[in-house]
Specification:
The complex is a heterodimer of chains A (171) and B (216).
Chain A (H helix, E strand, L loop, with lengths): L1 H34 L4 E11 L2 E4 L11 E10 L6 E8 L4 E3 L5 E2 L2 E6 L11 E5 L5 E5 L7 E6 L8 E10 L1
Antiparallel strand pairs in A: 1-2, 1-3, 3-11, 4-10, 5-11, 6-11, 7-10, 8-9
Chain B lengths: L1 H26 L11 E11 L4 E12 L6 E5 L14 E9 L8 E2 L6 E4 L2 E8 L12 E2 L7 E2 L8 E10 L8 E7 L8 E2 L13 E7 L1
Antiparallel strand pairs in B: 1-2, 3-4, 4-10, 5-9, 5-12, 6-11, 7-8, 7-10, 11-13
The chains are: A alpha+beta (171), B mainly beta (216).
Chain lengths: 171, 216
């Protein structure tokens, strides 16, 4: 009876030891993974231009049709490894239209979508019926743009910041 | 002969004015505004990798509301600018009043027909809102000439319109070549007023005046 109790005690202790070791290994793995992981924090700021001053949208009670809004996407790599192939996707909100030529970004190229972000191109094209009935591909008007993707060729280094912006007009 | 040429030129000018007003009216639906109260909401997303795994991130969401903005356009109906003779009665002029704002709005017509004015040898007999859109004045229409108090129109949806019919008579003593002008709107010029909706919270700079003109 005593021998049985002792055996049970040894078994329980063994299980605890194994568990403790497992947790330790898991923590070490986690720390190792964390050590080489990029982490990009993305924030969006919207402003409306009034009297030549940019007013933050959270301070503007409302916007009027015809007003121009500027959207800025800020990104910072707060991880401890470079972020490769960093891309930011932004949208032309419902009720607004893209202001042609307004997409700007630090060292990134901008590509545009007219299908809600399914496909992107530097110059989206649409089929347009000609007077003679034939169909010709022509550049889509910027008012059809639905999304913008900014593509950075260079990695976003640890601690680095980049910004991209564009303007829309309230319809 | 000289007088005839002058008369033709003037007539062409009048036609041109009316044509321009109608073109303006046709453009109204093309610039349809975002309805007041619409929420403009935006969020950005991002993707990146460490060479082995891919990651995604999303930004905060920013939302702002579109405000109500009033707008009215008054256009004479070019098709009903009648030719008149001295002493004629029952001459009908048709105005179209369109809500070019971005929300359902109403129009206020001032008491005692003060939103209308006649210039030249004529007199206004009756003015109504053509409630049934019949193009003629009948029992169902709203009187805005003999109205003791201001009249508020029915709700006009965004880009919706109402018609105002003006029945005028030409003075018996009117001489050939004279113009009779019927004006609707414009408080700023000291003339009759044309006011916008009761719940108007928009830009107050859009009051307009339009006229019909007939040559005797």
């Amino acid at each position: 009876m005593k021998a049985k109790k002792r055996l049970r005690g040894v078994l329980v202790s063994g299980v605890f030891l194994l568990l403790a070791a497992g947790v330790g290994i898991a923590q070490r793995h986690y720390l190792l993974a964390g050590a080489s992981r990029p982490e990009v924090k993305v924030s969006l700021v919207g402003t409306v231009e009034r009297d030549s001053t940019a007013v933050a949208l959270d301070k503007a009670a409302a916007v009027n049709p015809g007003e121009v809004l500027t959207w800025t996407v800020d990104a910072m790599n707060v991880g401890n490894a470079p972020a490769l192939e960093y891309r930011a996707v932004t949208h032309i909100p419902h009720g607004t239209e893209y202001v042609k030529g307004s997409a700007q970004a630090d060292e990134a190229k901008a590509v545009f979508s007219i299908d809600g972000g399914k496909s992107f191109s530097p110059q989206p094209m649409i089929e347009q019926k000609q007077a003679d009935g034939s169909v010709k591909l022509t550049p889509a008007p910027s008012s059809m743009y639905t999304s913008i993707r900014y593509e950075w060729a260079n990695p976003l280094a640890q601690g680095a910041k980049v910004a991209a912006s564009y303007k829309v007009r309230v319809k | 002969m000289k007088k005839l040429i002058h008369s033709l030129t003037t007539n062409s000018f009048v036609r041109l004015l009316i044509a321009l007003a109608v073109v303006g009216a046709l453009f109204i639906p093309a610039v349809a505004q975002t309805p007041g109260g619409t929420a403009i909401s935006n969020q950005a997303s991002a993707t990146y990798s460490d060479g082995a795994s891919s990651y995604t991130a999303v930004s905060n969401t920013v939302t702002v509301t579109v405000s109500n903005v009033s707008g009215l356009a008054i256009t004479p109906d070019a098709g009903t600018n009648p030719t008149v003779v001295a002493g004629q009665t029952g001459v009908l002029y048709n105005f179209t009043v369109t809500n070019t704002g971005n929300f359902t709005d109403q129009v206020r017509f001032l008491a005692s027909g003060a939103s209308l004015r006649v210039v030249g040898p004529g007199a206004i007999a009756r003015v109504v809102i053509d409630v049934d859109n019949s193009g003629t004045i009948n029992a169902g229409d709203t009187d805005i000439k003999a109205n003791g108090a201001d009249v508020i129109s029915a709700n006009m949806a965004q880009n919706g319109s109402i018609h105002v019919l003006v029945e005028a008579s030409i003075n018996a003593g009117a001489s050939a070549g004279q113009n009779v002008q019927i004006l609707l709107g414009d408080a700023s010029a000291g003339g009759p007023s044309y006011r916008r909706g009761l719940d108007d919270r928009g830009d107050p700079a859009l009051e307009r005046r339009r006229h019909h003109r007939s040559r005797v």
